[in-house]
Every structure is written in C-alpha cells, then in structure tokens.
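Session log. Operator J.P. requested a structure for one protein chain; no other inputs attached. Running the standard single-chain path with token output.
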Amino acid sequence: MFSTIKAGAINGIHSYLMQVEVDVSNGLPAFNMVGLPSTEVREAQERVKVALKNSGIKIPASRITINFSPADVRKEGVSVDLPVAIGILCSLGEIDESKLKDTLIIGQLGLDGEVKGIKGVLPIVKTAIDNGCKACILPKDNEKEGAVLGSSIKVIGVSSLTECITYLSSKDSEKDRLIPPTVVNVDELFQKESDRSDVDFADINGQSALKRAMEVAAAGFHHILMVGPPGSGKSMIAKRLPTILPPLSKEESLEVSTIYSVAGLLPAGKALITERPFQSPHHSITTSALAGGGRVPQPGVISLAHRGVLFLDEIAEFSRTTLDLLRQPLEDQEVHISRAGGNFTYPASFMLVGAMNPCPCGYYPDRGRCKCSQKDIAHYLSHISGPILDRIDICIEAPKIDFAELSTGNSANEKSSTIRERVIRARDIQKERFKSTNVRFNSDMSPIDIARYCKLGFKEQRMLEKLYRQLGLSARSYHRIIKLARTIADLEGSDQIKDVHIAEAACYKMADQKYWS
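Structure written below.
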C-alpha cells in the first residue's frame, strides 16, 4: 500500500516542503530509501524500525521503499524520522491517511520512541503556512517555536511516537482535548524585561566623547572602531551598546530567531529571540566559524549577529585573512557561501564594533611607556587593512581616564534609557524618511540616496571640499562623513545638515588619519 506524508527540511537559511512517499509491498524483506538522502537520513531506517518495535508496533516482513521528493535536492538532517514512521503506519493501514490532509509532520525519533527536538522548526512552519498547511505535528521541545507565527496553523507538540499515533487515530472532535494546540502570546514575549538590565551606560565614568560616538553609531547603525590603551573602558562601553539600541521589532525578531533556529541555538523553551544579538568571538576564530560554512553549511558568527552587534575585541589580533572576510558582508549585508552541495546566502546586517590597542604593548603614542619600535607599530596596525578601515564609519580614540573622572560617582552619568530615547527618536526620523525605499538606516544610503536625502548648503559643501582635500579622503570616506552628519542632525532633530554636524562627523575620521596615515 502507498501513502504520502508532508514533511519539511532546511536548505541553508531557507526551508522547503518535501513529500515522504512510502510504499509497503510483498516481496523479500527490505528497507530502501531514495531521493538523495544523506547519511543521517539513511540512518533513519534503523531509528524508525527500533522505535516502532519499542512502541509496541510490529512491522510484518515486507518490502518498504521510501522516496523523498523532490528527488534532486540532497536531504540533510533528522527531521524525517517521524514522518517516515507515520508513513509506514499509513501504508500498513494502522492510520487513516485522509486524516493527514494539509498536515505537516517533522521530528526526530529516539530508539525508545521518544520524539526529540530538531533544528529549523521556525522557517519550516513558516513555509508550511505559505503552502496552505492547516496543522503541524512536531516535537514537544519545539512547540513554542512553531506556534509564534500565530493562528494561521494549528501546532501540536508530541513527546513520543505512541502519543502521536494515539492523536492521529482519535476522532477529530477529541483531538483538541487529547493534545491542546500550542498557543504563544507574542506581544507578551516583547513586554518582558530586558535580559541585559544588569549593565548600563551610567556605570561608565568619563569618556564623554566615546559615549557620544556610541550614541551616533547606534542612531544610524554605523560601524565603529575604538583605539586606546588597556583599561580605558573600550570593552565596557561596547558591552553596554545593546542597552541603547532600539528594541527588536517583531519582523526583526522573526529574522533573528530563524537564523538561531537553523543553527540550533535557539534557547530551550524560548519561542523567539527578543533581544538584539551581541556576538563577541575570540580572535582565534576560524574563517568558517566567522562567515559560516562546514560540510553542511551553517550560519556563522556574523550571521548570528544579524540585527545586532558584532564586537571584535582586540581586533588587531585577528588574522588579516579573517578580517578581510568582513569586506563583502559589510558592504552587501549578506554572506555568500559556495559548496559542492550548492550555494547558500545568509543575512548579515550587523553593527561592527571594534576595539584595539594602538600598538602591541598598548601605550603608543606615550613614548614614556611605549617601548615598541616604529616597525612593530606599523606591522600591528597593518592587520586592519585599508578596505576594512574604509568601511568603518567612526574611528575614535579612547584616551586614558583621568583620576578625577574615575573617582567621581556615577550619579551624574546619563542612563542607557535616556540615551536610548534619543536614539529611538533619530531612528523614527529615518524610518519616516526611507519609508518608500529599501533603505533602513542612514548608514545604508547609497551615493544616489545621499544626493536625494542629504542636501547641503553652499557653506557645508565648501567645508566638505576642504576636508576631502586636506584629509585625502576616498570617495567612500567622503560619503560616510555625509551619512554621519545626517545621523548627527537627526539626533538634534534638524532637517538640514549644518556645518557643526559635518565638523563633528569629520572628527570621527581623525583617529584613522592619525594612526594609519
């Protein structure tokens, strides 16, 4: 007898639906799988046979053939265990296949019949909704993740094969009583208190210029590099940056949660990622771990930082090859990976925050403490290539903190909530400005967008011309100063970019002129 079960799988960051076609017929006992199954998919036959046996179901000696359609896409992962088991039972007449119309089934089986959690449930369920599925049976561990997409689909979480069989064999009128559909209140998830409430900008004494630069960076989603001696507060400020960023919107949360779901990094029992990501990899990270990849390509750290912050502490300690991988993602906000199994694209719209010492010992240009030779300093700074530096909007010094500032209490320091309000107002101005375009932030503007949205007066144009010639700016740096000035003007609520805004924006390019010229 023949049966067909709807299932789903992941291909890169995207998902697709597949048909698990099962045929059980007389003949020499065999269990064959076709349709480009990977090794872990082929191993499903042993898991399924033993799980059925341990669930009290005896499979007669027969010829079982499983086909995964579409047959030209390689099947990866372990999400097909449960649909294969249910397909066999339908073919044996144990379950009425007509009850599975418009129902998606996904899940991994243990040898004892337990239904275990899998990766990528969120994008699979979204694809199921787009293809008209009305119900989804999935592992109990993933039920909240699958239910965040609202009432468009009935989500049923099962913990064992026996429970799934009992549910499918029951009358329609009894199913909701047997296993109530999972419901998640998404609005309630976003109302919960921030997980990062233990850190605040009010903890930082001094460094007013650095805090201002962070505010400008947060308002326009600009990349920033801090250069200064050890102990000047660079890491401390970077770790507090998420506290002044606007909260994730529901759309952004679904984007981020999809990446974490595919990577299998969605926290247990958590339906969505509601806080902006903050990724801080060690400088020994490999290129594939940073950009993504592997035998079965997975999102890398820069994709896990999507819509959030990628903080590279001691950025000059990263290998130049590793850092140069960032060039294309910084420009295109995507990561493209080519493997024998296909081409994969992962989103990578992140805010790059770098922190570094100005030399190997960290104290240059204080020659009273710095013992590094000019050659050592030049070699150290050369780890940050010109093209990478050119893509960083703000490069600012983090000077040693004065004792008077250090010993002062923090009661007078601005709280993150106060700074965040200004950042949100500036973001709202950008949202209104770019509402009819694909641009999200000032930092995303192309030269054409700059010409349209950043009109300059005669005085401001002359000032920019002078800066361009004196600082030897590239075309990209010239445009970045204008974008920074636009963000500074937005923070002040000014419709026009003024000379004071351009002057402040130019100051954020002085540090790279000082150290790299």
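Operator note: The longest strand covers residues 14-25.
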